[in-house]
Fold this protein.
Amino acid sequence: MRIIVAGGDGFCGWPTALYLSKQGHDVTIVDNLARRKIDNELHSNSVTPIASLEDRVAKWKEKTGKTIKTFIGDLNHYDFLCEVFRQVEPEAFVHFAEQRSAPYSMIDREHAVYTQSNNVIGNLNVLYAIKELAPECHLIKLGTMGEYGTPNIDIEEGYLEVEHKGRKDVVPYPKQPGSFYHLSKVHDSHNIMFACKVWGIRATDLNQGVVYGLHTEETEMDEQLVNRVDYDGVYGTALNRFITQAAIGHDLTVYGSGGQTRAFLNIEDTVRCVEIAAENPADRGEFRVFNQFTEWFSVQELAEKVQKVAAEENFNVELSHLDNPRVEAEDHYYHAVNTKLRDLGLEPHLLTDEVLRDILRTVVAHKDRIIKDNVLPSISWK
């Protein structure tokens, strides 16, 4: 299958591109290298050294004999995107190419505007390119479980059956996003659903939980293929920050009460979920939603898991609680449905001590790259 992976230089996109290439698909990466530029803007970095995209794909070809084509450019530039479509003639378009940090979107007006214009307009351009140049192409779009927020009812997969004044209907599940980033994903979902309805596009929205883990079989083949480890207060997940804090002997800093609960999945499951969606495409005109996660944890539970594994590795750290820089419910109900991907064959990799130990040891091996001033939060929602 001819597959474009947009954002293929990023944390989710890179291992996905390698995995799909290994499975025999003809993979093309499209990326504007914005994530690397944002590292420079934030004076931050990945704990693991990341080779250039050119060197990465060259090493992949050296190791496997498989070629991954690359186009460096922006989805917001429609002429560029159309030329990519003409050359590749994609059968599937995997869309990771969006600004993915909630804190980054909340820095100030400029960063909120950038996040929404980059994400929403880029996605809209992809929809038009499919309509005009590849109408059979299946859009596989990375959404987020954060679109739903934390409602006091079960979270269904995309849709909710409601009864109101004696009448029933199936409607898109109500969205309660928690940042300008998450709002951009809601706008994407609405635009995709509309495009499917009026143009007959086929699309799958993968509402992904927080991704953890580092290695896949493919990224472990050579140090130049390694994936990112983001740890700072802007792009680092809570789990990565806790692991990094343990490695440098810092208290594990839990925001607020620590009761905030979110859905999670392993990076190995991310790549598999994309493969499942590609091999089982939506029908023409169908806007399909999969909740892409395998388990859920509170922030406090994550900190305790990291503390336990760190102690076993002779890093004895304490837990401490910071004032929460976010505006969010800290103690709430959380129960979400995730059956569709499992029904199609997903066999989950769960968060084990071994997974945490692997990340911790990798971080320790590169701890001289950690910029300690970047670990604590610096951005407030208020």
Notes: The chain has one domain: 2-374.
